[in-house]
Design brief:
- With 96 residues, this protein is mainly α.
- Helices cover 67% and strands 0% of the residues.
- α3 (54-73) packs antiparallel against α4 (78-93).
- The chain is elongated.
Length: 96
């Protein structure tokens, strides 16, 4: 038998209830579901699903754009970097 340990987490009561119902319908309990998640995360060395957060995606695009400019020109000036940050913030706010 595996050497087990306990994990104590806090979760919204309603979310736990919904998760219990979902995982019970799948033939498992919440503990098994959390173990599956953790095992998969460790195996992949990453969160095993995509996380979609609009600002995060836009920030990543901004960084990729800056990296692209830096690779073309060998560097970016402080003004170039500031302009990219300003443009990204406008895009996030929907000013564009």
């Amino acid at each position: 038998m595996t050497d087990l340990t306990s994990l104590n987490i806090k979760i919204d009561r309603e979310l736990k209830s919904e998760a219990d119902a979902l995982f019970n319908a799948m033939g498992m309990n919440l503990t098994t579901a959390v173990n599956i998640f953790v095992r998969q995360a460790v195996a992949e060395q990453a969160i095993p699903f995509q996380i979609h957060v609009n600002e995060k995606v836009q920030f990543q695009r901004m960084l990729e754009n800056m990296r692209g400019q830096a690779s073309k020109h060998g560097f970016m000036s402080d003004d170039d970097i500031n302009n990219e940050v300003i443009a990204a913030r406008k895009e996030i706010r929907g000013d564009i």
